[in-house]
Design a protein that fits this description.
The complex is a heterodimer of chains A (272) and B (344).
Chain A: H1 2-21, H2 23-50, H3 62-82, H4 84-96, H5 100-103, H6 109-114, H7 123-139, H8 146-177, H9 183-191, H10 203-216, H11 220-231, H12 236-266
Helix pairs in contact in A: 3-7, 3-8, 3-11, 4-8, 8-11, 8-12, 11-12
Chain B: E1 15-27, H1 32-41, E2 45-58, E3 63-67, H2 74-81, E4 89-94, H3 104-107, E5 110-114, H4 126-136, H5 141-155, H6 170-182, E6 188-192, H7 200-217, E7 220-224, H8 228-234, E8 237-242, E9 245-251, H9 252-259, E10 262-269, H10 275-281, E11 285-288, E12 291-297, H11 301-309, E13 314-321, H12 324-334
Parallel strand pairs in B: 3-7, 3-8, 5-6, 6-7
Antiparallel strand pairs in B: 1-2, 1-4, 8-9, 10-12, 10-13, 11-12
Helix pairs in contact in B: 5-6
Classes of the chains: A mainly alpha (272), B alpha/beta (344).
Chain lengths: 272, 344
């Protein structure tokens, strides 16, 4: 474990050196992601100028909703910072055979391939997310309980674990397909559903979609459960969702591990 | 198969391979847009037989060249030995481990260098990649620093290790790749065309480096290459693979003895002989001014030379083996190409 932390520390240091080498690129990445996030915030401020609540009776008024947005930003920042850059490189490594030199290293291949690059510019959005969560929670009525505050980081971890499992499974698909350059697009499409409160998924289409995105591909649990736990009062039914998020996180990690190992065994490398 | 022999000079070879087979299924794509559209609905594929039953034993400390034409299966063989891919059938043990089980104990004890793929971080100085190797291979600081400095001194690349890899020439990069591969002092070193694209000076530097490292450490080395100079400089034992089978396994000297029937005799005449005279000697020849190069049967040199020299004033005579490149090329051509499975 200590060695893996040391290796990860080396990855972090190397990524920092790389980011500092390409300073302009680093600044542009920060500016564009902050700009994108700023436009999102402006959009939701506009929405709340027309309505006081998203989903009648859902409880997602302005302050709780900004906790939701902040939670999404924090989880997304962690995923974008620690896993996505490696996953994006992974597709190219499979296509060109660059994976070969990684597989001969005496370290777990999944660890090496999914965490070797850290994108520091992603933390900019994460910091804004933390600020939004703090602001929203301070305005929430009733204020979040101590239990909610203690559960929040755990459930953030579950959300990150679910996302990580999904990324690893998509990366494993790359090995089987040989080429999967739409990995990032696919990730964006399916996680799009997780950016809104689960309560909006109602009716003949919304209901089944909510069930699928909760129990089949549990992306609705990623942001909703931690945000709901912190921003809204915890009711009896919410405990089941908290347990579901924890179970889903464990299952996704196990499933992604099995998928990745099966895929690596099918790896055929590219011609030299 | 012209010849295949396995070598077991000790009880436990470092590399022990039996009947290794690797088949790939590859898409057989028709050209053009219509072919691509047809491919959407019906995709034909065929099986490529990369290795068709390779058996090989390598003893500790051997430096073995794996030769073969493009597509012969050399790189596939090294990928199997390093555990990157799994075989269709057959068995292999490297350092007592089954490579494709990828045990860390095994991976700590060997290294793979591929001339066309880099393991160093592209945007960063090699020193950063070396530090990663130190952590991955659990090298204590003192051992790491000593080994790194020794290797850097041997290759005279001290000023390069702090320069981003993307700014290095191919030869410089390859030297640093070799250092990275040797930092953990592997017992087995697999080299896949490490001198490809390098100039003669860089090739010589790498030859000298590999020879010294192999001699001092007793490392077992398998080298695939297309450059006969690599082979002549480094390897006593040569394995020739064509179409996924071992065609020859023996010493380099033996290749020339076994697979050439003639020698090249070069004569520098004071007065060039007439074409009719040269034709009367009965051997194929090349002429370049007063110089004549004859291909003469090895057994008949002693009886032929006096006849050729009689009545001519000759300034110089050299008798040489056929160039190794030509022998190997003939050997490659001698390997009959079996058909792969037709598209389905």
């Amino acid at each position: 474990m200590m060695r893996y932390l040391q290796i990860f520390g080396t990855f972090v240091a190397a990524s920092l050196v790389r980011d500092m080498t390409f300073r302009i690129n680093f600044i542009l990445e920060c500016v564009t992601s902050l700009g994108w996030m700023g436009m999102n915030l402006a959009f939701y401020l506009l929405v709340f100028s027309y309505t006081s609540e998203i989903g009648q009776g859902s409880g997602w008024t302005k302050a709780p909703f900004f906790v939701f947005l902040g939670t999404g930003l924090i989880i997304n920042a962690i995923v974008q910072a620690f896993f996505m850059p490696s996953a994006e490189e992974f597709a190219e490594m499979v296509r060109t055979g660059g994976l070969d030199t990684t597989l001969v290293k005496p370290v777990d291949a999944q660890f090496l391939l999914s965490m070797h690059r850290v994108k520091f510019s992603a933390f900019a959005n994460g910091l804004v997310g933390v600020a939004l969560v703090c602001w929203g929670a301070s305005k929430a009525d009733p204020a979040p309980s101590l239990t909610a505050w203690l559960l929040f980081p755990l459930l953030i971890g579950c959300g990150v674990a679910i996302s990580y499992g999904l990324i690893v499974m998509l990366a494993a698909a790359t090995i089987l397909m040989g080429r999967n350059q739409s990995l990032y697009d696919f990730w964006f499409y399916i996680t799009n559903f997780s950016r809104y409160p689960a309560e909006i998924y109602t009716g003949p289409w919304g209901g089944p979609l909510r069930m699928i995105c909760t129990f089949v591909l549990p992306i609705l649990l990623v942001v909703n459960v931690p945000a709901h736990t912190l921003a809204l009062p915890i009711r009896a039914g919410d405990v089941r969702l908290i347990i579901a998020a924890i179970v889903a996180a464990v299952l996704m990690l196990v499933l992604s591990r099995l998928t990745f190992q099966a895929a690596i065994n099918k790896y055929r490398s590219a011609s030299s | 198969m012209i010849s295949s022999k396995s070598k077991t000079r000790g009880d436990s070879p470092v590399i022990d391979v039996h009947n290794l087979v690797k088949h790939y299924r590859v898409a057989d794509k028709k050209e053009g847009i219509s072919g691509s559209i047809r491919g959407l609905f019906h995709r034909s594929s065929r099986t490529v037989q990369a290795l068709r039953g390779v058996s090989l034993q390598v003893e500790p400390g051997e430096f073995v060249a794996i030769l073969g034409p493009n597509g012969a299966g050399k790189t596939t063989f090294l990928k199997l030995l390093s555990g990157i891919i799994t075989p269709t059938s057959g068995t292999a043990e490297v350092l007592g481990h089954v490579p494709w089980q990828r045990h860390d104990d095994f991976r700590r004890r060997f290294a793979l260098v591929m001339g066309q793929k880099n393991q160093l971080w592209w945007d960063l100085p090699a020193a950063e990649s070396f530090r990663l190797h130190q952590v991955i291979y659990r090298l204590d600081r003192e051992r790491f620093t000593r080994t790194r400095d020794e290797l850097v001194d041997l290759l005279e690349v001290g000023r390069l290790i702090h320069q981003p890899v993307r700014d290095l020439s191919l030869g410089e990069r390859m030297k640093l790749e070799l250092i990275a591969a040797l930092l953990h002092e592997p017992e087995v070193l697999l080299l896949d065309e490490p001198t490809i694209g390098l100039d003669v000076v860089a090739q010589h530097a790498i030859h000298a480096f590999l020879r010294r490292v192999q001699t001092e450490r007793g490392t077992t080395v398998l080298l695939t290459t297309h450059y006969m100079k690599d082979v002549a400089a480094l390897c006593r034992r040569v394995v020739v693979i064509t179409h996924g089978r071992i065609l020859y396994d023996g010493t380099l000297a033996e290749i020339i003895d076994r697979f050439t029937t003639h020698k090249i005799v070069t004569l520098d005449f004071e007065q060039p002989p007439s074409d009719a005279t040269v034709a009367s000697w009965g051997y194929s020849c090349e002429r370049d001014g007063p110089q004549v190069r004859l291909r003469i049967d090895r057994e008949r040199i002693a009886e032929t030379l006096p006849r050729v020299l009689a009545g001519h004033s000759v300034l110089d005579v050299t008798v040489e083996d056929v160039p190794l490149e030509d022998v190997i090329a003939d050997l490659f051509r001698a390997g009959r190409e079996p058909e792969d499975e037709p598209p389905t």
